[in-house]
Amino acid sequence: MKKKIALVTGGFTGESVISLKSAAVVEKTLDRSLYDIFKIIIYPGNWYHETAAGEKIPVDLNDFSIILQDQKIKFDGVFNILHGSPGEDGKLAGYFDMIGLPYTTCDALTSAITMNKGYTKAIVQDIDELFVARSIQLFDNNSENITRILKELRLPLFIKPNNGGSSIGMSKVKEPNELQEALDKAFAEDSQVLVEEFVSGREFSIGVYRSRGITTVLPATEIISSKEFFDFEAKYSPGVCEEITPGRMTTEEVERVNRIIEKVYQKLNCKGAVRIDYFLESETGKFYFIEINTVPGQTETSLISQQVRALGIDVKDFYNALIEEMFS
């Protein structure tokens, strides 16, 4: 009998638009010979399944079920493609844990920690061969912040919401007079803000997943952006940046990056597929950790999809592996 899989999308943040695009790709790619797929859209106070006729069927939150044609549908598992809150920050994972429903992404604790960029850096910074940029974490937008930033860190700086994705609310600051505007922009998105020194180097993003007891590091994508950094426009507007998969690295760099990535995945107790962003510093070639994305995009042109294909794996088989892993 085919397993019933809930494909969860939507969300409570601006990333919901990207989540819906990812879900559309996953929905048409998943293997219908193995699974019955039910797309579940989650908005604040409104969780529902939309039928082919456009009818919105509410989700029973007692057991995450729906009623279709007078029949109760209970799901065997969840394919989580909800970016941002509540799908990526641990809230949804905690709910699924309480009702005993398996899902394809990291558990509640890992999801909550990795959503916070500052906390994540504190955990991974002692991994061998991994470096992190100097940074400070701000918890309120007060008048003393600029003095502290200029005293403790060197320009240029990246200023970004500590809990967020898709580079929303992020700025690169080159001059002191740009600091306040950047802080205001970041604090408009989050109550915590991370300020970190700029690392000059080549930027990469790399996927990693676990299936059948084996952790697989995918070929990295090198990102060459025409913008100051890989911001929201660069990520989701065609032609703004060049993405090279596999990225241009020496054999030594590939081996070292793969060692580090596998250790990050293990130390953070990740599950399913995650994507990790990093720099290779220009002068030294050192690996600088940027951040981790535990619900990476799955659009047609997403980095993970490019990397899976570069390894010679069909994306459908990749999705099958993620689903079967949650039942193992």
UniProtKB/TrEMBL annotation:
<keyword id="KW-0479">Metal-binding</keyword>
<keyword id="KW-0963">Cytoplasm</keyword>
<keyword id="KW-0067">ATP-binding</keyword>
<dbReference type="Pfam" id="PF01820">
    <property type="entry name" value="Dala_Dala_lig_N"/>
</dbReference>
<dbReference type="GO" id="GO:0005524">
    <property type="term" value="F:ATP binding"/>
</dbReference>
<keyword id="KW-0961">Cell wall biogenesis/degradation</keyword>
<protein>
    <recommendedName>
        <fullName>D-alanine--D-alanine ligase</fullName>
        <ecNumber>6.3.2.4</ecNumber>
    </recommendedName>
</protein>
<comment type="pathway">
    <text>Cell wall biogenesis; peptidoglycan biosynthesis.</text>
</comment>
<dbReference type="InterPro" id="IPR013815">
    <property type="entry name" value="ATP_grasp_subdomain_1"/>
</dbReference>
<feature type="domain" description="ATP-grasp">
    <location>
        <begin position="124"/>
        <end position="324"/>
    </location>
</feature>
<keyword id="KW-0464">Manganese</keyword>
<comment type="similarity">
    <text>Belongs to the D-alanine--D-alanine ligase family.</text>
</comment>
<dbReference type="InterPro" id="IPR016185">
    <property type="entry name" value="PreATP-grasp_dom_sf"/>
</dbReference>
<feature type="binding site">
    <location>
        <position position="277"/>
    </location>
    <ligand>
        <name>Mg(2+) 1</name>
    </ligand>
</feature>
<dbReference type="InterPro" id="IPR011761">
    <property type="entry name" value="ATP-grasp"/>
</dbReference>
<feature type="active site">
    <location>
        <position position="166"/>
    </location>
</feature>
<dbReference type="GO" id="GO:0005737">
    <property type="term" value="C:cytoplasm"/>
</dbReference>
<feature type="binding site">
    <location>
        <position position="291"/>
    </location>
    <ligand>
        <name>Mg(2+) 2</name>
    </ligand>
</feature>
<feature type="binding site">
    <location>
        <position position="291"/>
    </location>
    <ligand>
        <name>Mg(2+) 1</name>
    </ligand>
</feature>
<keyword id="KW-0573">Peptidoglycan synthesis</keyword>
<keyword id="KW-0436">Ligase</keyword>
<feature type="active site">
    <location>
        <position position="302"/>
    </location>
</feature>
<dbReference type="InterPro" id="IPR011095">
    <property type="entry name" value="Dala_Dala_lig_C"/>
</dbReference>
<dbReference type="Pfam" id="PF07478">
    <property type="entry name" value="Dala_Dala_lig_C"/>
</dbReference>
<feature type="binding site">
    <location>
        <position position="293"/>
    </location>
    <ligand>
        <name>Mg(2+) 2</name>
    </ligand>
</feature>
<comment type="function">
    <text>Cell wall formation.</text>
</comment>
<feature type="active site">
    <location>
        <position position="15"/>
    </location>
</feature>
<dbReference type="GO" id="GO:0008360">
    <property type="term" value="P:regulation of cell shape"/>
</dbReference>
<dbReference type="GO" id="GO:0009252">
    <property type="term" value="P:peptidoglycan biosynthetic process"/>
</dbReference>
<keyword id="KW-0460">Magnesium</keyword>
<dbReference type="InterPro" id="IPR000291">
    <property type="entry name" value="D-Ala_lig_Van_CS"/>
</dbReference>
<dbReference type="GO" id="GO:0071555">
    <property type="term" value="P:cell wall organization"/>
</dbReference>
<dbReference type="GO" id="GO:0046872">
    <property type="term" value="F:metal ion binding"/>
</dbReference>
<dbReference type="InterPro" id="IPR005905">
    <property type="entry name" value="D_ala_D_ala"/>
</dbReference>
<dbReference type="InterPro" id="IPR011127">
    <property type="entry name" value="Dala_Dala_lig_N"/>
</dbReference>
<keyword id="KW-0133">Cell shape</keyword>
<dbReference type="GO" id="GO:0008716">
    <property type="term" value="F:D-alanine-D-alanine ligase activity"/>
</dbReference>
<keyword id="KW-0547">Nucleotide-binding</keyword>
